[in-house]
TrEMBL record:
<keyword id="KW-0547">Nucleotide-binding</keyword>
<dbReference type="InterPro" id="IPR050763">
    <property type="entry name" value="ABC_transporter_ATP-binding"/>
</dbReference>
<dbReference type="InterPro" id="IPR017871">
    <property type="entry name" value="ABC_transporter-like_CS"/>
</dbReference>
<dbReference type="InterPro" id="IPR027417">
    <property type="entry name" value="P-loop_NTPase"/>
</dbReference>
<dbReference type="GO" id="GO:0005524">
    <property type="term" value="F:ATP binding"/>
</dbReference>
<feature type="domain" description="ABC transporter">
    <location>
        <begin position="17"/>
        <end position="257"/>
    </location>
</feature>
<dbReference type="InterPro" id="IPR003439">
    <property type="entry name" value="ABC_transporter-like_ATP-bd"/>
</dbReference>
<keyword id="KW-0813">Transport</keyword>
<protein>
    <submittedName>
        <fullName>ABC transporter ATP-binding protein</fullName>
    </submittedName>
</protein>
<dbReference type="InterPro" id="IPR003593">
    <property type="entry name" value="AAA+_ATPase"/>
</dbReference>
<dbReference type="Pfam" id="PF00005">
    <property type="entry name" value="ABC_tran"/>
</dbReference>
<keyword id="KW-0067">ATP-binding</keyword>
Length: 327
């Protein structure tokens, strides 16, 4: 039984069109004409309880718009959504109790107050008893390593601490479904890892369902077994991360360390040379040619070390978006 069901979800935004020049400006002032931008087109998917799904796409692909429809902030132009058995746009209490939306670039904690004060407001909104409040804050503080930070004004916290406090606030009502839009945006590598670690922990502890967008592929590879890929509003791929690589990266990287340096012209006969540094060479080799190429390299050249790896996920996805491969 799916906890998130999106069927043929579409969203168009009207945008005012203005002709250039002073005449255009005057006409625009009195009589506006609009054209429609299709931000999301016919997107369907289902997510099972407890899954962590990565939502990927280049800037402007329609990720935030989809998340806004799933959380009931905007109404779909067409199609249907159900989250935890509810229609999001109705914003019923039973729905709001079960979900949370965290946007990396927005904050809900009040800047000049200690986070604990904002948390008390949330506890009142969600009807959480004082005893339960203490218990949940204690537990989340420990999971997020935020000891001693909640009593300081939010403006005095580091970016990473603030993001963790935001997560604490967003999870106080113990939602079943987490919509996370760039939760690690702007954080340094350590803070990113801490947030990731926490999300994994939280998912396991509460079997929470997570739909996550991130421009940091490390978030996706660390947390998500399944990804949705959206491009220009349409869903291009829904499946495992491994499957994505299989489908969109029909090549492997072959790294060799040679006993003696060789000229690039000679090396190029074995494959596309991506890097040549002294005796170290990295080739890109198509999957079909892999066995043949590796055997040939080992037969022809004096090789000290050889490894074959998948190309980095970022690179594969970057290529997919650049080429606009839609199947
Ligand atoms: N309120 C709005 N009015 C008009 N157009 C909008 C509005 N919100 C988004 N858009 C447009 O819809 C498209 C999808 O935007 P959306 O914010 O969903 O993309 P995104 O995938 O989240 O991008 P990013 O990774 O940059 O956040 C873009 O072309 C954007 O300009």
């Amino acid at each position: 039984m799916s906890i998130i069901i999106a069927e043929n979800l579409s969203k168009s935004y009207p945008v005012a069109v203005k002709s250039p020049g002073i005449k255009g400006t005057i006409t625009h002032f009195f009589r506006r004409t609009y054209r429609s931008i299709k931000a999301v087109q016919d997107v369907s998917f289902e997510i099972a309880p407890g899954e962590i799904v990565g939502f990927l796409g280049p800037n402007g692909a329609g990720k935030t718009t989809t998340l806004k429809m799933l959380t009931g902030l905007i109404h779909p132009s067409s199609g249907t959504v159900k989250v935890a058995g509810q229609v999001p746009f109705q914003r019923k209490e039973a729905f709001l109790q079960k979900i949370t939306l965290v946007m990396g670039q927005k904050q809900q904690l009040i800047w000049d107050l200690p986070a604990l004060d904002s948390l008390r407001i949330n506890a009142a909104v969600y009807n959480i008893s004082d005893k339960e409040f203490q218990r949940r804050v204690g537990e989340l503080t420990e999971m997020l390593s935020l000891e001693g930070k909640l009593t300081q004004p939010v403006r005095k916290l580091s970016l990473g601490e603030r993001m963790k406090a935001e997560l604490l606030a967003a999870l106080l009502h113990r939602p079943h479904v987490l919509f996370l839009d760039e939760p690690t945006l702007g954080l340094d590598v350590n803070a990113q890892a801490a947030v990731r670690e926490f999300l994994r922990d939280y998912n396991q502890r509460y079997q929470a369902t997570v739909l996550l967008t991130s421009h940091y592929m490390a978030d996706i590879t660390a947390l998500c077994q399944r990804v949705l890929l959206i491009h220009e509003g349409s869903l291009m791929y829904d499946g495992s991360l491994d499957g994505l690589l299989e489908r969109f990266a029909p090549y492997r990287e072959v790294y060799i360390e040679l006993a003696q340096p060789l000229p690039i012209e000679k090396l190029m006969t074995y494959g596309d040379v991506k890097l040549l540094e002294g005796r170290a060479v990295r080739f890109m080799v198509s999957r079909e040619a892999l066995t043949r190429t590796v055997s040939q390299i080992l037969a022809d050249l004096e090789v000290i070390d050889l490894t074959v790896t998948e190309p980095p996920v970022e690179e594969v996805i970057g290529r997919v978006f650049q080429a606009g491969v839609v199947e």
